[in-house]
Amino acid sequence: MADNNSYKQTPRRRGPGGGMAPAEKAKNFKGSISKLMQYIGRYKIAILAVMIMAAASTVFTVIGPKVLGKATTGLSEGLMKKITGTGGIDFSYIGRILIIVLCLYACSAIFSFIQGWIMTGVSQKVCYRLRKEISEKINRMPMKYFESRTYGEVLSRITNDVDTLGMGLNQSITTIITSVATMIGVLVMMLSISPLMTIIAIVILPISVGLVSFVVKKSQSYFKTQQEYLGHINGQIEETYGGHMVVKSFNKEKDMVDTFDKTNAVL
Q: Total domain count for the chain?
């Protein structure tokens, strides 16, 4: 069995009589992003609603701990008064604080659900439009295109790649908005509680960003390879089932299983 290094640059299998072609890479990343923004541009109102809902959800989430801190302070002061014999714990005050905190988190959950529901609808509409246009274009493609790719690779473009785009679109926009709102809200809250601790946290932040950037940079190539091998597996499954009579006639069941296991192990 070949080692894993041989799978870093995976050639695409051509049809009968063909050679090997290297795996495709994005030729114009900025152009692809621009086209994606054109798809999303149709849903400006929905995206604006998502931004508002995500920001509102984050605000309620950020405010919650500070309000909850008042209950902790009230409990601590009540214990001290009980020890010194000058009073006791005001449970009614703590109860009111806890009810307020519960309402804050409930509002945050409601806004989060609404923005998730809207964003899911937008991403599904974008995926539907993409699949529709891919289906229309694939009927206009020359035979040379299909001869240079397996059925699994073609199907992977229509199903897996579009699904991955939809999931990324659904998660990335919401995550960006929520992260920005959370960063601003937390920064304001930290400054209001302890400016010194805020400065320390800001100094540590570049180190965290550097580590995250390093992990993301290293993982992108593996993700790309995973998508390529997912297409290879789809092609192997489709060809094996489509030609199962030929496989059985030549007693190649074990060879096909071994080939699938090797590709699946890499995946």
A: 2
